[in-house]
Amino acid sequence: MGVREELIDHVPRLRRYARALVHNRELADDLVQDTLERALRHARQYHDGTDLRAWLFTIMHNAFVNQMRSAGMRAPHVPMDDDTLSDGLPGADWHSTANPAGSLEVRDLDYALQRLPAEQREVVLLVGLESMSYAEVALALGIPVGTVMSRLSRGRERLRSLMAGVKPEARLRVVR
């Protein structure tokens, strides 16, 4: 099976990660489309026997970073409908009126994830949502494994604080 055929197997993972990353269905679909287009355009650069998933997430990460850089030059995207709260986390629609507490927890978690710095959110989502190993995340993001562990630790701690309703402490430097 070639790269083109294998790409289809990874589309659900890419969509799930993109939606959690950008918190908007349309922008997430655009990010996935950009990722797949780049992967197809550069398929000859993929080496058989290496991790296709990590390669695709590397492409998505780079596309996301590029979009974030150019977003600073554009007006923010404003969704046309109000159902974006359920677009955040995959499986967010599992809750219903039968489980209002679960619904609130999912919304709180989604809200907290969106408050993380992008580099922490990426690592938390790849490890927690995509079940990638630290080495796979390091490869996908192009950072050392130690940086993955550090960002994950800080991201998890910040998530705990946000979920508990505690404002993260501001780190002030004392100048003497």
From TrEMBL:
The keyword Transcription regulation applies. It holds the Pfam family PhyR_sigma2. One of its GO terms (molecular function) is sigma factor activity. Keywords: Sigma factor, Transcription, Transcription regulation. The keyword Transcription regulation applies. Signal peptide: none annotated. Residues 108-159 form the RNA polymerase sigma factor 70 region 4 type domain. GO terms for biological process: DNA-templated transcription initiation. Residues 9-61 form the PhyR sigma2 domain. Gene3D superfamilies: 1.10.1740.10, Winged helix-like DNA-binding domain superfamily/Winged helix DNA-binding domain. Belongs to the sigma-70 factor family. ECF subfamily. This is RNA polymerase sigma factor.
